[in-house]
C-alpha cells in the first residue's frame, strides 16, 4: 500500500516517513518503569494529537505521574468501535551495555535503535499517524476509533490497564494492542492468545546464626542453610514440576507454557551469617485453560522432595494479588477483529500470517479476559527477542508499513468490511 501525499493534509497524516521522526521524539521522552513516570510521553502525545487535528486526549489517572490517554474519533453512525492501544512506559536500561545512547533514537540503516523503539513507542507513533490519515481522508463514514495509551504496563498495570478496567473506562467492540508481534520476522504471525503469568516464591526458612557453627553437633551444614535449601528447591522444580498443557483447540503456533524457576534470589545478610530466609522468584507463562490449583500442587510436590531434616522449612507461596495470577486471553479465529486483521495484513503484506500465541503477557489480561473485549495482544512492528535488551531496535520499513496496516485495519473493521481473499 503506497502512501500518496494529498494537498491540505497535515505533515504527519500525509507521509509515513514522518512516523520515524515522531518515534524518535517518543524515545527521547524517557519513561522507564520502575520508577514509573509517563508524563513526558503523554505530553508529547497530547500536543501531537492536537497538531494533526485529532480529538483532544482525555487523561485518566490514578496518580498524576501516571496518566493514561484516550482520544476517540467518531466517523459516523453504524459500524464498529475499535481501540488501538499501546503502553507508554518501557523497562529500565538496567545492566544492559548499550552501544548507543538509549534515549536518542539512533538511525543505522533500516534500524531505529532506542529504549522502547520496539516495545512499543514506534507502534504508538504509527497508530497516531494512521488515525490522522484515516480521519483526513474522509472516506470512513461509520464507526469509531479510540487511541488508548496506557501507563504502567511493564510493572503490573496498577496505574494503567488494570485501573482502566476497574473503572470501566474502556468500552469497544474490539482492541488491538501494538506490541511487537514478530517472532522471526516482522508481522510473521497473527497472535490470538496473550499468555498469562503465574508468579510464585519458593521461600526457604532456617535459623539465622554464625556461619562458623553451621556444622556443630554433626549436622550436615547444608541442612542448616536456607540458601542451600532454596537452591535445591529450585533444582527440584526445574527437574520435576509437571505442567499440564490444555488442548490446542485452534491449532495455534506456539501453544506451550513456560516455567522459569529462578528469576531472582532475595534474602540473607552476607559473609559470616547463615541466612534466616531466602526467597526465589518463580514464574510460569500461562495458556488459556490452565488451572491455578494444579500448577501450585505441581510446584509444591516437586519442592516437597527436598530433604530438610527439620533444620529448614520450604514453602511455595503466590505473589501478592493481582500479580499472583495474570490470566491469559484468547480470541476466536472467526471473530470479526481477527478477520479484519487478516484482511488488512493480506492487503499490506500480500498474505495473511498464520494464527499463533504471543509468548508474553500484555494489557490484554485486563481488557480481554472472560466476558471482556476481544483483544489482539500484539500486532505491531518489531521482534519480541529484541526487547528488554541492549540496543533494542525496530525496522524502519516495518514501522512505515505499520501505518498502512493500522489505517487498513481501522477502515475495514470500523466500516465492517471484513472481506479477505479466499487463498489467505
In words, what does this structure look like?
- This protein is an alpha/beta fold and 424 residues long.
- Helices cover 28% and strands 24% of the residues.
- The chain is built from ten helices and 21 strands.
- The strands form six sheets. Strands 1-2-6-3-7-19 form a six-stranded mixed beta sheet, with helices on one face. Strands 10, 12, 14, 15 and 16 form a five-stranded antiparallel beta sheet that branches. It has a three-stranded antiparallel beta sheet with strand order 4-5-21.
- Helix 6 packs across helix 7 (292-303) and helix 8 (336-349) packs across helix 10.
- The two termini are 18 Å apart.
- The model is unreliable at 1-9 and 420-424 (pLDDT under 50).
Descriptive labels:
alpha/beta; six-stranded mixed sheet; 10 helices; 24% strand; elongated; disordered N terminus
Q: Portion of residues in helices?
A: 25-40%
**Count the helices. How many?**
10
**Biggest sheet: strands, sense, closure?**
6 strands, mixed
Principal-axes geometry comes out as elongated
Sheet-strand content, in percent, reads 15-25%
What structural category arises from helix and sheet content? Answer: alpha/beta
* Poorly predicted runs: 1-9, 420-424
The tally of beta strands, per DSSP, is 21
Rg over C-alpha atoms, rounded to the nearest angstrom: 24 Å
Q: What's the mean pLDDT score?
A: 93
In order across it, which strands form the biggest sheet? Answer: 1-2-6-3-7-19
Terminal residue distance:
18 Å
